[in-house]
Amino acid sequence: MPYQIIDPDRWSRAEYLKFFKGMSHPWYNICTHLDVTVLYQHCKANKQRFFHAYLYLMQQAINQCKPMRYRLVNDSVHLYEKLNISIAILADDDSIRFCNLPYEPQFTSFSHAATSAEIEIKQTPFILTQFIGQEMRHDTIHMTVLPWLNFTSMSHARDTKNPDSIPKIALGKLTHINGHWQIPLSIEVHHGMMDGLHVGKFIAILQALFNQPELLN
């Protein structure tokens, strides 16, 4: 994906980046719950895959939130034009595969592409050499879904020797509470790239999109 190179010394977060970049663990994690009542009911009524619906709206949200598109690449800062989603899914033998979902502006196209990508990746064996020694993609976020757990805390595997700034997002179990459907959300980001204020704004954007299921039409 195209990107703009930002001069880290002239960036508004230059001093914060210097402060957090030298830390052994510069990431922080925030967990909350999202109300998906309107979205879930819309998907059921219109026979749309809820899984694809919230992934599509997640992709829209991350691309609408500028701080989510900043990446630390070596010693420079990149601002990506568009971001993809890389999501962990289960193959038929319950082993993990990593599925890349390219950016699609329309839900129908996104859902079709996601279906094809899921089928293909589930049939592809996980091979370590596909990842070790390969250049990391930065125009993405890393996602996982834990539909068995209504979690309140979350952490992710990290290579602290080669730190990256790619946000990691997890969604959990769909739960019906007091007439509302909700799912837990975990978001882990590099503190040099954004603060809690920016994460809060991102969550507000995501919740607003979940409240507009007509965007799927």
Strand portion: 25-35%
Low-confidence regions: none
The CATH topology corresponds to Chloramphenicol Acetyltransferase
How many structural domains can be distinguished in the coordinates? 1
User: How many strands, which pairing sense, and closed or not: the largest β-sheet?
Assistant: 7 strands, mixed
In CATH terms, what is the architecture?
2-Layer Sandwich
Give the SSE string: EHEHHEEEEHEEEEH
Please report the first level of CATH classification, the CATH class: Alpha Beta
- Count of DSSP strands: 10
- Indicate the mean pLDDT: 94
Number of helices: 5
CATH superfamily: Chloramphenicol acetyltransferase-like domain
Classification by helices and strands: alpha+beta
N→C terminal distance:
26 Å
Task: Walk me through this protein's architecture.
With 217 residues, this protein is α+β, with helices and mostly antiparallel strands. The chain has 5 helices and 10 strands, in the order E-H-E-H-H-E-E-E-E-H-E-E-E-E-H. It is globular and about 50 Å long.
Outline of the structure:
The chain is an alpha+beta fold and 217 residues long.
Key terms:
single chain, 217 residues, alpha+beta, Chloramphenicol Acetyltransferase, seven-stranded mixed sheet, three-stranded antiparallel sheet, 5 helices, 10 strands, 27% strand, globular
